Amino acid sequence: MENPGQGFAHVNHATSRTFQPDKLTLGLVAPLESHRSSPLPSLERHLERARLADTLGFRAFWLRDVPFNVPSFGDAGQMHDPFVYLGILSGVTNNISLGVASIILPLRHPAHVAKAAASVDVLSGGRLLLGVASGDRPEEYPAMKIDFASRGQRFRDSVEYIRAVASPFPDADLADGRLSGQADMLPKPAGGKLALFITGSAQQEPDWIAKNGDGWITYPRDAASQGRLVADYRRRVANFGSQNKPVLQSLYIDLQNDPDSAPHPIHLGFASGTKFLKEYLRELREFGINHVALNLRFNKGDVEDTMKRLADELLPEFSL
Fold this sequence. Notes:
globular
């Protein structure tokens, strides 16, 4: 259980609308379609479904950064560049938080990441949640003539740069560039800084993750194991004297027609009825998870019907 007396910091509209201690909210992962047998989605009705997610009351819509389709990895994500896609989504949705989990920082110059992310944050009215990662597909690095082994250091350098350029006319000599104090990057993020979430370990020590992110994105695992990791993360956050920070995770689901259907495992998740899914989410909430991004890639049922069932049966409980 989290300390109910310690709320999360307000960074932008998205953080306040998506995260609250002792609460768990639900989001969805793009592409909103089932493509079980192919790494490539059709992106059929992808904007209509994003608008539907917003209308139904899901708290966040999550994209991924997959620069190259690597067949051995088996998943090309939503295929479109995440910042281009976020720009379109900011114009066709009204309330839903727009997340990316996660931008592969070592493959981009942090100035480009900072400017694109701040632009999305401003254009969307402060709805951006910026997940960042070090990358886990070695094939992408030589394609950009970037060293894979040094990605951990490059990741730290990028975070330092992104934080620095949120200040007016920064003066700093950083690994990724000399900020002279004579030039300013615009626009500034809607809340003064980007809502930045570290994904996984990102090749970093746990203390660094606890100190430098505005929250942590982790991977699905059984609720008890998740609880131990969340408790360890929050102990480290408290040791730095920081305000409490949210923890997020993804979850693949295949929602069965029978609400009482027993669970069986699928990749990074399970197939089940809504009864088991609800109990699992309650466990995660008890152990301190604040947001779950549901992935419908392996869902056998009609995606829009599934979205409506989730909204009808789960959102009344898993909301702020």
